[in-house]
Amino acid sequence: MMKIPASLRRGLLSSLVASVAGCTTIVDRFSGRSESCEILRDGSPATARIVGLADTGITINQNPVAEFVLEVQPDRGPPFEAKTEALIPRLEVPLVQPGRTVPVKYDPQRHDRVALDLWECD
């Protein structure tokens, strides 16, 4: 059995950790997950009707990232239109079609920041 020097093992481990962290960052960037989780943590709850759905052309692990056009109805105030992107598990695509009403959270200071409240953030 070949013995790998400790300095090389540390370098390989550091590279592996950086690669995993980099992949997570890439997934978050292309799926919108980081911003969505921030909105879900701090935002105000509302319901929204899906008025439009478009394919962004991005897939992650064979799951599409879709752009949603939403008519958001906050508890207080008039409804407003907003767009958001979300990674949709393939088997759940039928649940997020135009005409459906879904729970969302939004930033009361910036109505352009809306997230679907359908999945858990880790």
Short overview:
With about 120 residues, the chain is of the alpha+beta class. The protein has helices spanning about 5-30, 35-40, and strands at about 45-60, 65-75, 80-85, 100-105, 110-115. Keywords: Lipoprotein.
> What is the typical, i.e. mean, pLDDT?
80
Uncertain segments are 15-31
Largest sheet: 5 strands, antiparallel
Helix content: 25-40%
* String of helices and strands: HHEEEEE
Number of strands: 5
Q: How widely separated are the two ends?
A: 40 Å
| Number of discrete domains | 1
Number of helices: 2
Q: Specify the structural class.
A: alpha+beta
- Percent in strands: 35-45%
Gross morphology is globular
- As laid out across the biggest beta sheet, the strand order is 3-2-1-4-5
Radius of gyration: 19 Å
Notes on the structure:
The protein is an alpha+beta fold and 122 residues long. It is built from two helices and five strands. It has one domain. A hairpin with a 2-residue loop joins strand 4 (101-107) and strand 5 (110-116). The N and C termini lie far apart (40 Å).
